[in-house]
């Protein structure tokens, strides 16, 4: 088993808490993405598993082995870096076999393993080249081959696609997913790119300021964000978040009033509204909105972004809150400075409510 476990792990650098009481279990064979903006603690968490940093508090285990005091070379992990970290004077073959030479593996056995890894990653025709003769995508595949040739218990990947152009990122992330699925090796993958996270991870762990905000499968994370940070961070663009308050009308009717107007809540959300003790934040995904002359919300258009297959209509509510409507490129587009009305998909899953004080998701009591 190669399950990775964090139990109350904290890492301090002087007065700065980089990772704060992290408790997280990555089951054997899972590809878990650590997602967050720069400085959130995700890379520090990865380095703690690798042994490059020492935990200030807590326990880190790989399989059934506590590794807090185990040297990095003895943890049986392989790390893939953003910078590739290849030896420029060595050929592709020699770069891939380097960890095997360090282990003292026989030459014939090294050659077999290098060939297998090279074929797996489509590098078998490039084995005699030097890194300077390779494209960025090829260099990253060499770094991956060097990692898999070790047959480690755990892969650790620190933003490995950041130096690639957009087309190569799409291809290489597909290659990594296919490779991990084939090998079944437990993988921790660090990124700040939520598209990478959503398309690659079996689960995603979202971090902010060293604190784990939520961990769930991509569809669950997107559909039921635990708080406004996760709601705004996930999605391209992120969720619209509008401050407001609940108004109880006749019978069991409930609406949420925001500066842009008053939105009746679907009946299925009324038990959630009953759990609110004060002001709320209304969350609306851009794809659940549409420009509609009879819509209950109003806003002023500031920018219209045409992105090929879709258009983002970026608006401003009366209180200055941003409202983004994502629509197909074929839909009629308003012009900047137009005042528009906006309606919301009636599906209850399209409307999210958060406590304005705690920023946590409201759930039925």
Number of helices: 9
Q: Strand pairing plus helix content: what structural class?
A: alpha+beta
Order of helices and strands: EEEHEEEHHHEHEHEEHHEEEHEEEEEEE
Share in helix: 10-25%
User: How many domain regions?
Assistant: 2
- Beta-strand content bin: 25-35%
The CATH architecture classification of the largest domain is: 3-Layer(aba) Sandwich
Q: What is the straight-line distance between the termini?
A: 39 Å
Return the CATH class of the largest domain: Alpha Beta
Residue stretches low in confidence (pLDDT < 50, at least 5 long) are none
Radius of gyration: 24 Å
Across the major sheet, the strand order is: 6-7-8-3-9-10
Topology, pairings included?
Layout: E1 4-13, E2 16-26, E3 31-35, H1 42-50, E4 57-62, E5 65-66, E6 77-80, H2 92-102, H3 107-120, H4 136-148, E7 154-158, H5 166-183, E8 186-191, H6 194-200, E9 203-208, E10 211-216, H7 218-223, H8 228-233, E11 240-248, E12 254-258, E13 261-264, H9 270-274, E14 280-284, E15 289-291, E16 297-306, E17 310-316, E18 322-328, E19 339-344, E20 351-355
Parallel strand pairs: 3-8, 3-9, 6-7, 7-8
Antiparallel strand pairs: 1-2, 1-4, 4-5, 9-10, 11-12, 11-14, 12-13, 14-20, 15-19, 16-17, 16-19, 17-18
Helix pairs in contact: 2-3, 2-4, 3-4, 4-5
What would you say this structure looks like, in words?
The protein is α+β, with helices and mostly antiparallel strands. The protein folds into 2 domains: 4-224, 3-Layer(aba) Sandwich (Rossmann fold), CATH 3.40.50.300; 230-355, OB fold (Dihydrolipoamide Acetyltransferase, E2P) (Beta Barrel), CATH 2.40.50. It has 9 helices and 20 strands. It has helices spanning 42-50, 92-102, 107-120, 136-148, 166-183, 194-200, 218-223, 228-233, 270-274, and strands at residues 4-13, 16-26, 31-35, 57-62, 65-66, 77-80, 154-158, 186-191, 203-208, 211-216, 240-248, 254-258, 261-264, 280-284, 289-291, 297-306, 310-316, 322-328, 339-344, 351-355. Strands 6-7-8-3-9-10 form a 6-stranded mixed β-sheet, with helices on both faces. Strand 12 and strand 13 (261-264) form a beta hairpin. Helix 2 crosses helix 3 (107-120), helix 3 (107-120) crosses helix 4 and helix 4 runs parallel beside helix 5. The longest helix is centred in the middle third of the chain and has 18 residues, at 166-183. The model has no long low-confidence stretch (mean pLDDT 93).
